[in-house]
Amino acid sequence: MPPIESSTTVLIIWAVVGYLMGSIPYGILLTRVMGLGNLRDIGSGNIGATNVLRTGSKKAAALTLLLDAAKGAVAILLARMIAAEDAVQVAALFAMLGHCYPVWLRFQGGKGVATFLGIMLALAWPVGIGCCILWLLAAAITRVSSMGGLAAASGSTILLVVLGYGYALLLGIALTIILYVRHRSNIIRIKAGTEPKIGQKG
Length: 202
Fold this sequence. Notes:
Layout: H1 8-22, H2 26-33, H3 49-53, H4 58-82, H5 85-100, H6 113-123, H7 125-142, H8 145-162, H9 169-182, H10 184-192
Helix pairs in contact: 1-4, 1-5, 2-4, 4-5, 4-6, 5-6, 5-9, 6-7, 6-8, 7-8, 8-9
């Protein structure tokens, strides 16, 4: 298990850094810069890649996916370069919170799937790859993006333990809970059979 030795001040600093990095709304910024309209008025109004795809721009959706994943990964990589493992995990948790509850958007952010995957890839790349595979399989089979995210989150804690990263289990559980909370409405629609398919407008 990596050493845990950060002071409270250091942990607070990385919480702030993680939150600020996670709170950058790339989906909204990209759609505005690319002249695709106000993302809040399109589809579900969500700021993530799935809703950006509903603008009709695969390029914008792909960039949003990559940047939302990168902000979670970069927060971890920066913390890991100069801080202990506890600070790394704090940065990861707050990057996820920043994406899902950004102060700039009145705490109404994204669902967190891309950021979650980026965090897992940077935190423990074998676990991250496993989560990406689960995401791709579930999304491909069901054609429902949210199913991919829920499957990845559900499998992440098992992968953390099985692949030898049990020291990050509490973080994995916390991230999974956040992702499930953000997908409450999706889960209801999935049960009702009304959840939109990938690429479906509206």
